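explain this chain.
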Amino acid sequence: MRERGADGFVIQADVSRPEDNARLFQQVQREFGQLDIFVANALGDLFAVLAPPMELKVEQWNMAQASQGRAFLEGVQAAAQLMPDGGRIVAITYTPGGGAGSWQSYAAQGPAKAALESLVRYFAVALAKRGITVNSISPGLTEDSIINALPPAAQEMIRQWCASGWTPMGRMGTTEDIGNAVALLCSPEAGWITGQTIAADGGASLMNSDFPLAIQLG
């Protein structure tokens, strides 16, 4: 960042802990005085909360909610206090996990992502008159993400699934793809867009699981 003429600093914090959230924004205020953009991209320990609904423990449920909806609630409340002249808030979510039920082990994280998207809409209304937009990006399957923590065979299976046509663009997304979508929502030209969830997924959300690919793409 400094090589590009800007400035920055690193804060180690666990956003599922309220005291860490508070400390994070206090340091931002000390360093810069105000904030223009807040991107919430915390994941938490995903593998610790993966469990089907009949086996899901309350502790796992609470962990998922703490790193998603609750962390976003605390984060936006703090960030908005540092945005006196408008601003941009973007949450990274995962709409398929919150809107479906087929990935049984996602029973804690899916509802947590759904809560995150719902909060985006409420905050969008609450902060609109202050010129602060609040939106979310729902990535598709993305390289250099949590996918990399899966066994190599599983990663290759996912890539083949995307290439087969279930992602119309024929590939997994990249971190650049998602970053570009965030940059779009943070641009001055996006000041009239708020409360929306944008799918950055190469068209994967357009596919219909009711029909074989040969029928859909034929």
The longest strand covers residues 132-139. The beta strands are 37-40, 87-92, 132-139, 197-200.
